[in-house]
Amino acid sequence: MGYRLTKNLKDSEFEASHVEVNEAAAKRIETDFGVRCVDIDTALSTAEAVILAVPDVAIGKVAASINDKLRPGTMVIVLDAAAPFAGHLPERDDLTYFVTHPCHPSVFNHEATAEAQSDYFGGLSARQGIVCALMQGPEDAWELGEKIARTIYAPVHSSYRVTVEQMAMLEPALSETVCGTLLTILREAMDECVARGVPKEAAREFVLGHANIMLAVLFEEIPGQFSDACNKAIENGRPILINSDWKSVFEPAAVLESIRRIT
């Protein structure tokens, strides 16, 4: 993420200092973008906003290590709700905490160029939405936080304001616990068909094509409905594949436990 953010910050309106503890990564950033990384003290000496582009498990440790070096009023930007939701940020009433995360380009993100169409992650060429939360700090800090978020995740078509609690519901609960699990099962189901003799290319084309039209109908991208046969298959398959209490993954205690394992 730090590499991607460097690319988008390089030619932006913001003056950015980049810190990278990995020498190979720092050299790559300099080679690719002409950006020379600096030490942490140099970067923090004038920083009005600090982006923690580090793994979830490192957020608490990194935030604690720089806490005494952050001037009052500094905005700390975290790129995922997990660590903030779990309480891993220092207790400093004089800091602004802003949390933002990309939605990533939608499967219905119809782009004009092949380059953009193949940007599945976002932040390069494909448009995407973002979610943002002002966790703490003055309301007038929102404009700066969102402007930075729109810059590092560009190109952005929509920005949605949520709470940190809602963002934690979106990830990990919705995007990873539910969506990631179901899509993994879908891939395993395709592999099972292949193991039972179906040519892999046919199985892949078949499942992705059906997923495409089903997603378009379910998420109201197009008007339509499933066939009677499909509805009957879903009715029969649901109790086999899905536990009746699956929505419990969205309960606050379940979300917190999932985040605890992540962080």
From TrEMBL:
Gene3D superfamilies: NAD(P)-binding Rossmann-like Domain, Semialdehyde dehydrogenase-like, C-terminal. It holds the Pfam family PGDH_C. InterPro entries: NAD(P)-bd_dom_sf, PGDH_C, Semialdehyde_DH-like_C. It comes from the Bacteria. Residues 109-263 form the Phosphogluconate dehydrogenase (decarboxylating) C-terminal domain. This is Phosphogluconate dehydrogenase (Decarboxylating) C-term.
